Amino acid sequence: MKNAWRFFLIGECLLFVFALWQLVHNIPLVILFFLGVGSIFIVTKKENEKKRTLQVIGAIFIVIALVNNFAIWLMLLFAILFIGIKGVEISGVQLFQKNWLKKKKIMMVETIEPTAHASEKIKKTWIGDSRIGSEIFEWNDIVLSIVAGDTIIDLGNTLLPKKENTIVIRKLFGKTRILVPAGIGIKLQQNSFLGTVTFEDEAIQLKNEELIIYSTDYDDSQRKLHILSTNCVGEIEVIRV
Question: In this protein, which residues make up the domain named DUF7649 (predicted)?
Answer without folding.
Answer: 2-86
